[in-house]
Amino acid sequence: MTKLRFGIIGYGAQGSTYASFIEQGMVESMDLVAVCDIDEAKQAKLKQEFPSKKIYSDYKDMIISGEVDAIITTVPHYLHPEMATFALENGVHVLNEKPAGVYTKQVKALNEFAASKQDVTYAIMFNQRNNPLYQKIKQIVEDGDIGPIRRTNWIITTWWRPQPYYDQSAWRATWGGEGGGVLVNQAPHQLDLIQWIAGVPTKVYSKIKHGFRRDIAVEDEVTAVMEYENGATGVFVTCTHDLLGTDRLEILGDKGKIVVEDSKTVTVKRLKESENELNENMDMEDVKRLFMGQMNTEDFYSTETFTEESAWGEQHSGVLENFARHILHGEELLAPGAEGINGVRLANAIHLSTWIGEEVSIKDFDDDLYLSELNKRIKEEGKFDLQS
């Protein structure tokens, strides 16, 4: 097999984008051979657009057809684990769209099932892991350039969404239809990146506002404080009502600091001695001269600034290509599916902390408590079936 026979489930904005990438030759190791959508009007359009491809109305029919080697799930979040499990069960490789699911209990079940299927690959569409900017930042941290991490701060409020965005469909911004707001829709990549780069926190405490500036049931304003195993702390702030928007990530270490502006420009300051060493060795005369601006800062640290350009489409198409090359040639996966639970668990913990008014353990997260609290909110909506 020289190319992976690929099927797309759900032909909305994301599914059609992936189809265009493959058809334009941006994913060399894939052939798009099938598309599935439950909408009859879309099916008719697909048959015109792709006369040589198989068009399905039922994802199960596509998976068991023998026509596809792998699929991607560009469908509502709650369906990701269900479809992925069915595909893996039938020997079809899965690239799950983010998030891996809505709540940890269903994602854990998917991960356990995927782990039992050694002959098929399970990956997740964390396209930001294919962003050269974040790859370089991760390498700087792993190389120890800024020392052990002391604090992370990410304010990411560039998700402005007006009320018509939420009103366009009945499932959007609901607990039963979407499973949450900004944390499950707009911010999953940042929730993944902060853990991919800085490590998985152990605890979180949050203040969430539900329907704060929009007429919705779910969260549109989030402030979360995280704690790490080594005592480091982190702050994560996001919302969907800031038209002017800010995107600023800071990672402070014992030996330096990384600041990322607008996910484009990175400034890295590397201390020539660790802060611990400076604190121990500096006398009061040095302190006075420092405070009075009489000491050369270059004696203390170096500064590097860089930008990394990523052409539109390269990140997503790169994950698609990596997924295909892993299956065909054994290339290492950029985003193993099992790691999808980290972002889901952090989002769940942030939700739960506000719901119960307490700090929540991520290390010993209570899957059943979260599901119980989620179902309370789904029941109050009165529009959707409860989750199990």
TrEMBL record:
Q: Where is the GFO/IDH/MocA-like oxidoreductase domain?
A: 134-258
Protein origin, superkingdom: Bacteria
Q: Which InterPro entries match?
A: Gfo/Idh/MocA-like_OxRdtase_N, Gfo/Idh/MocA_Oxidoreductase, GFO_IDH_MocA-like_dom, NAD(P)-bd_dom_sf
Single Gene Ontology MF annotation: nucleotide binding
| UniProt name for this protein | Dehydrogenase
Stretches assigned to the Gfo/Idh/MocA-like oxidoreductase N-terminal domain? 4-120
Q: Which organism is it from?
A: Halolactibacillus halophilus
